Amino acid sequence: MTTQTQAHSESHVHRDDIGARLGMWLFLFTELILFGGMFLVYSIYRFTHPEEFHVAAKELNTIIGTFNTIILLTSSLTMALSIVAIQKDNKRLSIFFQFLTILLALFFMVNKFFEWSIKFHHGIYPGSDTLLNEKSGEILFFGLYYVMTGLHGLHVIVGVAMIAFMMRFTSNGVVTHDNFIKLENTGLYWHLVDIIWIFLFPLFYLIT
Amino acid sequence: MTSDSVAVETNGHEPSYLEYQGKHKGILGWILSTDHKRIGILYLTAVLTFFFAGVVFGFLMRLELISPGETIVTAQTYNKFFTLHGVIMIFLFIIPAIPAIFGNFFLPILIGAKDVAFPRLNLLSWYLYMTGGILALLSIVMPGGPADTGWTFYIPYSVRTDTNVIYALMAAFILGFSSILTGLNFVTTVHRLRAPSMSWFKMPLSVWSFYATAWVQVLATPIIGITLLLVVIERVLHVGIFDPALGGDPVLYQHLFWIYSHPAVYIMILPGMGLVSEIIPVFAHRTIFGYKFIAFSSIAIALFGSLVWAHHMFTVGMSDTGEFIFSLLTMVVAIPSAIKVFNWTATLYKGSIELAAPMLYILAFIFLFSIGGLTGVMQGVISIDIQIHDTSFIVGHFHYVMFGGTGFAFFAGLHYWLPKMFGKMYNMKTANVAFWFVFVGFNVLYFPMLIMGWMGMPRRYYDYLPQFHPYHLISTIGSWILILGLIIMFTNLFKSLRSGKKVTAKNLWGGETLEWQIETPPTLENFEKIPVVGGHPYQYKDNEVTIEEEKV
Fold this sequence. Notes:
The structure holds two protein chains of two kinds.
Chain A: H1 2-13, H2 17-48, H3 50-57, H4 62-87, H5 91-121, H6 129-132, H7 136-171, H8 181-205
Helix pairs in contact in A: 2-3, 2-7, 2-8, 3-7, 4-5, 4-8, 5-7, 7-8
Chain B: H1 5-8, H2 28-31, H3 36-64, H4 75-110, H5 119-141, H6 157-160, H7 165-192, H8 205-237, H9 250-284, H10 291-305, H11 320-348, H12 357-380, H13 382-388, H14 392-422, E1 424-425, H15 428-455, H16 469-499, E2 501-502, H17 544-549
Antiparallel strand pairs in B: 1-2
Helix pairs in contact in B: 3-4, 3-5, 3-16, 4-5, 4-7, 4-8, 4-9, 4-14, 5-7, 7-8, 8-9, 8-10, 9-10, 9-11, 9-12, 9-14, 10-11, 11-12, 12-14, 12-15, 14-15, 15-16
């Protein structure tokens, strides 16, 4: 009995960093294609309703958008720094940078919350009378705006949860200077979240 | 299925994965196991359960169509039947059947590995599969009743109908996730866990097709995921995306739907083709003809298959250029499929063919798939497609490909590998009898559909004009023969698991691939030590002549 259990547990000790990274990249592909589907919808509707997209984009607050872009870019930096820190075996610094990343992400979400609530206040939300009285291109623009930034926001929240786990893993020694593939994969995911925003920002805010 | 610990202590002999006692006992030892073989059997149990449910709905549909007018159910109920039949058979049976059951069980063994790359993720995909399956079943019992949109969920009806479309959509969404994770796992497994001596061109052909399938799963499924999610969002929150009342474009939905769902057809058929390439050499006792051509044609199918989706939509009003390109590409896909068929038949040539149950199903596969494939090429011709679009010709065609193809390959796989998986042999005579019922029933059921579709019988109608009556009657009788065959087949298989002859021989059929060099049933770790692979995967000793020919 005991010898078997050992054999069994050994088979799960098997560690393959390249494999784990390959799996993560494949997963990121699927995420890109998931958003790619929406970018496809966006580009087709923008092609068929150029004027209305132009008018609707004026409703968005470019300043908050720019601010959020800077926040997210900085958070990508802190994420990368936390990986460098763990590679140099500086556990505390790594945890600090991870914490900073979470903080910036939350900051981003707070901004997003205010941005959305102002729109809601103006009566621009899915299914509202104000919106349904507008031209179809504007309905589509705001539909896509809410869905795409909403789904992106969901990814930010998932990212925050993942980084929170990594903070725990770093502090209890699961993630170490010679075994940091978990943190590295989390970093990859976080950069993806960042990249998607980099495309969302000009497509929604800067097309006026 | 689990045994007591007495069996485990057989001295000096490694227990099989069925007897092995891990951390958990009983049922928990199964549903918490990350062993790829146990997960394969979890899938087997679940997939078969859903398959039987799908068969019941198909049977009821055929019964309704036995005579014109309302026979057993109303038009509305009939709509629900074909939706459930489609959703269950496609998302819960055909897509996961071969990759999730045989892929999980045999992919690691075929490449000389102990497990898949991510065992825990593997178990997670089973749980996602079950969640999706349960959601689909919930849609039946929750108030509102099951969806009546057809498995395609076309807008705007899927936004307007009162039925439980959301359950069905979410089910398909979650099942998509499960499928993605399985694909991701298999791609990584093939890249990272092949035995060191197993180079790419020493891989068995089924591994090539599992690999190609896995890529399609990874790259195509997210599109359907987001599309179905957008429909859910549109239904729940009235966000304008596809619904024309909210400014959207329903044709765009159709494009997005088929961008996934056509490649999905190849997710369904490629693993079946892999099994054919695997089983034919064993029962013809002959090296596979054109190994590299078969391997690359899998990749070519995966590639071209991703670029043909709009042939489902020739009647929606596309540009002529668009129709021309999609029509051309559709016919191009027929080439790699035909390459496979020719190579299979060339393998049979001068072979000493042994007509055991797995081989019978495979031969039927080639015959039925050829009918399905050629009727498919017919539909690629725009002028013909406009005539037969949305008729039962289409229904006949895709049942010939999906059921006659993948379904039969799955049955072949069951008869080929089940004794290896459980160490129990079924009654071979009964298996052959069941085959003939299934084969005859299948043709009697689906061939009339091709004929009456050509004459103009629309699909998805619960009623029809009197001149179609004879065809519908024959078709319904066919469904009874088919179901009788299925009952004989599965009774035989299930009986073998309970009281079948125990087999311990490693090589049951004389196969040359790695699964036949390990214990029956396999031990937990599959291999005592990582195997060393010699030459090509299908070298038959008494067949030197063909090995000479193998220099492609």
